[in-house]
Amino acid sequence: MPGGNQTLKDTDMGGDESATLDGTLSFDPDGTLVSYEWFEGATLFGIGPTLTLPLSVGVHTINLVVTDDEGATDTDTAVITINVPPNQDPVADAGADQTVVDSDEDGIETVVLDGTGFSDPDGSIQGYEWTENAVVLGTTAALPSDFSVGSHVVTLTATDNEGATASDDVVITVSLPRGLPPGLVGNWSFDGDVLEQSDSRHDGTIVGGPASVTGVSGQAREFDGVDDAVSLPPMLNVTSTEFTVSAWINLNPAGVGKRTFFHASIIDNKDESIRFSVNKTIAERLTSGNDFGLNSVCRTGLGLDEWHMATLTLNQSTDTAKIYLDGVEVA
User: Fold this and answer.
1) Domain 6-83, CATH 2.60.40.10 — does that match?
2) Is the pLDDT of residue 48 over 80?
3) Percent with pLDDT over 70 in the chain
4) Burial class (CB within 10 angstroms; exposed 0-12, middle 13-18, buried 19+) of 139
5) Rounded to whole angstroms, how far apart are CA atoms 129 and 138?
6) CA–CA separation, 126 vs 140, rounded Å?
7) Where are the domains of the chain?
8) In degrees to the nearest 10, what's the CA dihedral of 39, 43, 44, 46?
9) Which CATH class is domain 98-175?
10) Which of 15, 51, 91, 222 has its Cβ near the most Cβ atoms within 10 Å?
11) Same fold for the domain at 6-83 and the one at 98-175?
């Protein structure tokens, strides 16, 4: 008796698997067995009560022929099946999310995408494909790629030697120095100094002697309406078609006349400028104007000695200007 039928798996995917044939249950009722022979077809695999040998993937019919001390023989058969285990999918790993700074402020930064952590538990990775919004970026495990300022979700899909695939996403974030959001030209808190908070090289310079006072959050600057100012470097390009300026303002009851809190000359055209002011008429009113012919007047009265967020948006392509007071459009 050859130990019965067996079904084995080619665990290492090497094309064969070791099988142990066991004929120790064979016996002779009136004598002794003197010979054990293991055959597949006419091929003798080995002799002895047990035999361990590699069998290739497939079905094998194994015959055990035993001979007793009188020369009598008997044969029994076992079917040994070697199966290939089901293919396992690759293990996905597109690398850790990355946040980088656009160090030269050109709007682009090179990032190395790293998919070398992908693995296949029962084979090997045969192909890589990096995509962003279905656009193929490259087909290597490690890929240097250029990304614009902002957030990018990149997908790596890997294919193993059996055609199975797995995917993983990695988020690439490119920020401007000190985290300046895309489109923001500058941000000044006036909290103790007049430095630009995003490191965009637009630091201000104090003109006159605006005092440091308590602001809506932290410190603010108080201007005398005569010669106090904060001078900023040129930053608005005449080709810009749309932009927004916002400021927290607090009107001093002692102030008179027009009080301009934002006045910018246009780069490349110093004769043109943009103004954002408060006019003192019957009530305090926000006004805006520029030398492109865009004007807007807020007829909502402003309370004195209280903080308000004033916002001006200018769109040169549509010749429109809008004013928002505390987040509400008022002109």
Assistant:
1) yes
2) yes
3) 76
4) exposed
5) 6
6) 10
7) 6-83, 98-175, 234-329
8) -80
9) mainly beta
10) 51
11) yes
